Structures are given as C-alpha cells and as structure tokens.
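This entry is listed below:
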Amino acid sequence: MTVTADLAISLDGYIAGTDVTIDNPGGDGAEPLFEWIHNLASWRERQGMTGGEENRDSELMREWFDATGAVVMGRMMCDTGEEFWGDNPPFRTPVFVLTHRPRPTLVKEGGTTFTFVTDGIHGALDRAKAVAGDRNVDIAGGASTLRQYLAEGLIDELQLHVVPASSARASASSRDRANSRAVSSRSGWRRRPSPPT
C-alpha cells in the first residue's frame, strides 16, 4: 500500500482560486486548474457522463481510480464537493473527512461513504489504511490537509499535474514545504528516507 496525493497545481504553486465557498467550490479564477480533468473520458465515466478526451491524462486518471482503496480529505473539500459530486461520487471507495465538527457517516451510491473523523490526520490515515487492503490511500486535499500530511512525512508519492496557468492570488499549497528528499519518478516524486548520519 502506498499513501499518495494527486492534484492539479498552477505554475506558481496554487491548487485553488481565492474565495473558496460552498457556492464557489474551486474559488475565483480556478477554472483553468480543473477544466482539463472535467474533460477527461475517465473522469466523465466516473460521473456517469459520456464522451470526453481519451489521452494519457485520461489513462493516468483511470489508473488512479483503479489503484485507490480509500481517500482522505479535509472538511472544506468535502463540503464544497458534496453537491457537485451528487448521489454517486467518483471515489467509489470509503472517504475519511478530517473535521472538528462531527457528522454521521454519509452513504452514497457506488460504494462511496464519507466518514467524518475528529481525531486528527493520523486517525484518518489509520482508518483509511484499514479498509484500503492492498490498494493505495490517497490524500485528496485541500491545501491545508496536504500540508499537514507532508509535514508529518506521511505521503509516499506526490503526483502534480502542472496546469499552464498562474494565479497570483490563489490558495497556496506549497508555501510551507516539508523537509523531504525527493527523487524523480513516473508519478512525480517519491519520498525516501534521509541517509543515516
């Protein structure tokens, strides 16, 4: 099992626009960050739609869906995505939502359940690993959630889809960088232990 994070990022290091709200889930100016994924055949299939582009990006997205056995996300990501994802969210796996506001488990169609975890990032990750089997656990976001897992050294692989756009006022994802050594890989980078001192 591998703990992954897979997200789109602008050239200047942002993963969302400004003013993210329930009614504005990606934030102002975020359309370029997400439109590429919404046009992929593999993404559209998971949303119950037809058509879309069948290309290497679509293959990578399909591989991500197939390899992921559980997802961890922050409460804001869940709250802003809940209406957009509808009754049959694309995850088709258990999703563990980090929160300070408990809520009963939300059961959706297609195998997606949202379990609201109040005991922190380690508790959510432990629960996700327990149900993922030999499949991956993905840290889906948002930026604050990603930073917390990176700072604790809990992400094994990070795949960034760099979108050729910039947003000088968007939600920072890379301002607080974790102390990690990285090596190139097909999927972005992999954390490896520092050599013994």
Summary: The first helix runs from residue 31 to 38. The mean pLDDT is 83. Residues 13 and 174 are 6 Å apart (CA to CA). The two ends are 28 Å apart (CA to CA).
